[in-house]
Amino acid sequence: MHGQWTADLSPVGGPVLGSFALRSEAIEAEIEWLHCHWLLTGSDSPP
Fold first, then answer.
1. What DSSP letter does each residue of 1-47 carry, written as one string?
2. In this predicted model, which residue has the larger pLDDT, 41 or 8?
3. 18: which strand partners?
4. Where are the chain's structural domains?
5. Which pLDDT score is estimated for 3?
6. pLDDT digit string (tens) for 11-47?
7. Rounded CA separation 17/30 (Å)
């Protein structure tokens, strides 16, 4: 059975992740993507 939740990261230039059975899974995937691809850490430059 397919999930109903996605994480739309297009506002920050990212993909749409999912689908997920649980909303909490979509949120966790969104947080993980942001930490790996978008959030700045120290001397990183903006995307």
1. ----EEEE-GGGT--EEEEESSHHHHHHHHHHHHHHHTS--TTPPP-
2. 8
3. 6
4. 5-37
5. 62
6. 989 999 999 999 999 999 999 999 998 776 555 555 5
7. 8
Structure tokens at 11: 């506002």
Measuring CA to CA, which residue among 37, 11, 35, 33 is closest to residue 20? 33
Give the separation between CA 41 and CA 18, rounded to whole angstroms: 26
- Quick one: tokens of 38? 């978008």
> How big is the chain by its Cα radius of gyration, in Å?
12
Instruction: Please state the pTM of the whole predicted model.
Output: 0.73
What is the Cα 27 distance to its own chain's centre?
7
